[in-house]
Amino acid sequence: MTDTKTEDRIEDRLSFQAEVTKLLDIVVHSLYSDRRIFLRELISNASDACDKLRYEALTTPALREGAEDFRITLRLDKDAGTIEIADNGIGMNRAELIDNLGTIARSGTEEFVKHLKDADKQGEARLIGQFGVGFYSSFMVAEQVQVFTRRAGETQGWHWESDGGGAFSIGEAEVTAPGTRIVLHLREDAKEFLEDWRLKSTVKTYSDHIEIPVVLLGKDDEGKDTEETLNEASALWTRPRSEITEEQYTEFYHHVSHAFDTPWHTVHFKAEGAIEYTGLLFVPSQKPFDLFQPERKTHIKLYVNRVFITDDAPEVLPSYLRFVRGIVDSSDLPLNVSREMLQNNPVLRKIQGGLVKRLLGDLKKRAENADEYATFWETFGAVLKEGIYEDFERRSDILELTRFRSSTTDGWVSLADYVSRMKTGQEEIYYITGDDAETLKRSPQLEGFRAKGVEVLLLTDPVDEFWINAVPDYQGKALKSAASSAAGLDAVADPESKDETPEETAPTDQIEALAKALQETLGDAVKEVRSSTRLKESPVCLVSEDGGMSLHLERMLKQAGQDMGHKPGRIMEINPSHPLIKGMAAKVASGGGDLSDLGMLLLDQALIVEGEAPADPVAFARRLSTVMTGAV
């Protein structure tokens, strides 16, 4: 670090955090497809700063002195080639400048929450700048960026400056009032933004929904100061739906989520009655980056009479709807509501019930268009299914919205579709869990089902292992694992195969003797060896005990490093009509040679089909070589 002097200011020269240096070029050139986005991002940040000050001033009114009316101002200087964006919000001190502008993906908003946690006010204020990359879009149009700022409640101002390279300078500055002023020195190819019409159209397109006025400052022909408000400057959710365009909805979605996709669905409504509130919610078309983070946080902004309170209130929406973005504004909550009050507030619980009912109802309507709904389901189905075991009250509604891959048809099917196609004599809904639908379709465990044309649902999301046990039946039909030892397939009628000649099988006594010999060979590796009626092509397969842990769940837990304490029972089923099994059975009956190598190879084969490695790969290779040598 070295000291430099610029315009009589002593400044520190600091290096960007390593991640900034590595990623800044990506942010500037790849993250944003339209350079106009820089203005949206800076205006959104300014709006956040005003919201922060408005919130802190609820408990410390003196912070808002001189900022009775919040506003964001823009100023063009064609001679100097600069654009200024200024706000009278919370401002920053030296440490915040370094943390917020010297570190990528770390915003002042996020640090603001940490401060509240330290003050035992966890979750009371979190805003939209959680990604911390919007500021860097400035360098798409600017060859140099200057920031002048002073934090509310402090007297010292600061100056930050960088050309977007590997370093920035920071030092003391004379700043007359709290807030932040950003000066962009435009590149030659970005001078178009110095034109009034260009700036006005950009603000109208991307920031018209901002509640805080965005004002263009200038001078008239006589040199007098002029002001022109460029945006509607009213909360978008308070306007009638008929007055809001799809483009405005989309830009508001971008504002509240800092996403760049187009929302798949928009919900805008006002609930009236005992409890009044307005909801403006969006279902994205792409997965948010934090969708599967362990915290499973929802991202709905809560307002009280248009004053921002928090976006970290899990009581607003359940976690299985955490992909939804938007705002809820209620007049029935106190303006100074605390985090603890939110957690136990009956009004908020009723609001949540209303929001969930509205969202699930809208999804049901959208599900009538199978192709459109498939897009949603492929993106968020795995998350929505969490509600099946978390939300008992709405379980049946979520089940109706749930879609599955099937062993007998392409595309997505519902449980209602499945029940309508059940075979004569079939009393259960069959499913199988695994990692990949195409692999499951070819599973030996489904050979008997394929032969009888019985449909099996293919469950490939990790959450499927958990919700399935919370649903005993659907329309009176029990859900049954096709990979269990008691699948009940024999009771299903098979009219298409009545005239077919039954496959020749080994004598029952020989199969029983072979099963006993294999059991002795395999020992504790399997709980039982027995004859199978499900197998048609494969010699063996592994199944789980009826009602026991599935083989897929066992594998998931093992991959997660979780010790199950005991090994779940695995049952090896053998196919009495397969040539290999018939040959082995005959050999056992005649008192033939040692079958231990063949027995272990059968187990290893069954494990491989299940997606697991042989217990002893070296021994597996040796046995395989021995058998192949005997064959040639």
TrEMBL record:
Region called B, residue ranges: 340-555
Annotated residues for binding of ATP: 41, 45, 87, 92, 100, 107-108, 130-135, 180, 339
Alphabetized InterPro entries for the sequence: HATPase_C_sf, HATPase_dom, HSP90_C, Hsp90_fam, Hsp90_N, Ribosomal_Su5_D2-typ_SF
Histidine kinase/HSP90-like ATPase domain location: 34-190
Entry GO MF terms: ATP binding; ATP hydrolysis activity; ATP-dependent protein folding chaperone; unfolded protein binding
UniProt keyword annotations, A-Z: ATP-binding, Chaperone, Cytoplasm, Nucleotide-binding, Stress response
GO CC list: cytoplasm
Subcellular location as annotated: Cytoplasm
Record's function text: Molecular chaperone. Has ATPase activity.
Family: Belongs to the heat shock protein 90 family.
Subunit text: Homodimer.
Family annotation (PANTHER family): HEAT SHOCK PROTEIN 90 FAMILY MEMBER
Entry protein name: Chaperone protein HtpG
Gene expressing this chain: htpG
